[in-house]
Amino acid sequence: MLRQEHAERATAYFGTDDFDRLFIVHALDPAVRAELTQDLAELRIFWMTIPELIDDVYTWYQSHQRRAALRRTLTGDLLHLLFGLGGLVPADRRESRT
Length: 98
Description:
Number of helices: 4
Number of strands: 2
Oligomer: single chain
Mean pLDDT: 80
Strand order of the largest sheet: 1-2
Structural class: mainly alpha
Number of domains: 1
Shape: flat
Strand content: 5-15%
Order of helices and strands: HEHEHH
């Protein structure tokens, strides 16, 4: 869950408390998610599973105009190493090898 200090830090960083909340979870029951999605969306709270996050970041990385420029930050450098140099591809995007 989002702790108070996380909200305070985000507020200081963004200069406002008007932002969405995103929770990344390792397992999420689809029935529970379907039941809560609409109510939480009205509160600007969104849920993603780790595979969805990887797919989203992979899509963003593939369309990035200057991938090597991402190496100027730790997170960008890790993404470039994983997706660019390491060739990591989400499992559901890999071509069949049969």
